[in-house]
Amino acid sequence: MAIFIASTKSISRGNGQSAVASASYRAGCELEDKRYGKTHDYSKKHGVMSADIILPSALAAANADIDRSDLWNKAESAEKRKDARVAREWLVNLPHELSEQDRKELAHQFAQTLADRYGTIADCAIHQPTKKEVDRGADPRNFHAHIMFTTRTAELDTDNQIILTDKATIELSDTKRLTLGLKRVSHEIKEVRQIWEQIANEKLAEFNYELIDSRSYAEQGIDIEPQLKMGAVATKLEREKYEQELRKAEKAKAKGEHYEIDKTPATELGTINEIINERNELVWSVELTKNQKVNAAADKIIFESRANNEREQNEQRFEDIKYRLDISEYEIGVGNIRINTVKRRIDDSKQRVEFNKQRTQGEQRGDTWSLERISDIIKHVDDSKQRIEDSQQQLADRVGTIYTAAPSPFNDAARRERASKLDQQQRRADQDARKHSYRDERLHQYAERIKLFLASKLLTRNDINNRIRWESYETAEDYPDKYDERQIEKLDNFAQLLGLQKSRDYRIGSRDIASHFTADFVKQNKPIFDLLTKPAAEREHYKNVAKDFDDFKKHIDHKRTVFNASLIEKLGGKGGDVGKMTREIVSSFTYLAALDTYIADDNRVDEAKEVAKLHRADTINLTCIQFKHALFDVHKLPLDEREKHSDALRTSLTTFIEQYSSELTEDQNTTIQRGVSSFNHYQDRATTQSRGLSR
Question: What is the pTM of this model?
Answer without folding.
Answer: 0.43
